[in-house]
User: Fold Pectinesterase from Setaria italica.
Amino acid sequence: MAAAGCERRRCACAAVVVVLMFAASVSAAGGAADGFITWDDLSIPAAAVAAPGGVSEGAMGGGGAVKARARHDLETIVVSQDGTGHSRTVQGAVDMVPAGNRRRVKILVRPGVYREKVTVPITKPFVSLIGMGTGRTVITWNARASDIDRSGHQVGTFYSASVAVEADYFCASHITFENSAPAAPPGAVGQQAVALRLSGDKTMLYRCRILGTQDTLFDNIGRHYLYNCDIQGSIDFIFGNARSLYQGCTLHAVATSYGAIAASQRSSPTEDSGFSFVGCRLTGSGMLYLGRAWGRYARVVYSYCDLSGIVVPQGWSDWGDRTRTKTVLFGEYSCKGPGASTRQRVPWSRALTYEEARPFLGRSFINGEEWLRL
Assistant:
């Protein structure tokens, strides 16, 4: 994990520079819906759902005219594997969104298993990716960090993602993101396999599933809100340096021995990042740490969560560096379940008071009042 950590840090720094540059240009130009994400951004117009593929009869077949029209004036782009939409692939639909886009574009992904890697680039904000149900619409790939790309180099954890979101104001709902690579045994090198990487700012996921084993969700940078989502993994299956609120989510462990839920990369007290889990439920197998101190100032808080007995009594890991115990913030507030007992927790974790937990309990943790209108 040490080598992987160095690689992640380099990739994250490069991504920060690009994100800041493009975010400044979008901010100056203005954005869709006054820069707020609403429930409407997570739903599809009835006409798009009712029609086969969501397009008029004359547009069936996904030919060049359809693609041109989608690229310029369609607010809903339909993906259908049978060719009755605008694109047969998810990436093809993303490609139709114009660079520098300033309005909400919804991509409806009709039922099917889409075996492809997908990237929503930084130049295409305000994209909604909407499935027809997590059991019906699945995007899956099987890359691992140790895989070799066409240039003969390892792809690394950063580029192993089945779906990578680098754009701001991204939404997704009712869809499954999966990395189907074989499960990594504990201690294995180069077996990290990301299902979803979030590298944009102001992102919301609603009723999505994110499935993998080691390093399932690369919650890289930015502010993110995951509501009623299911996230599955074994080792550090939520990791990164984002500032994210997980509310009402199910965290499902598939560890065969020891594993961990969250690995926060926060490396400085000036970084406003970390993970807050509110009203979430932990299920599954193995013996799980609630969090590991990937960064020296790692910050992870669980509040009102239902923790099963698979939590190790100590609760938290210092990543093998005892000096980090003086700088991390690992906290729990008003959790329940057999894994919620704090009697044997490491002495450097904290049982928070309400006043201490309050900054982590609501959308204000991610400045939601500035970009969420739900």
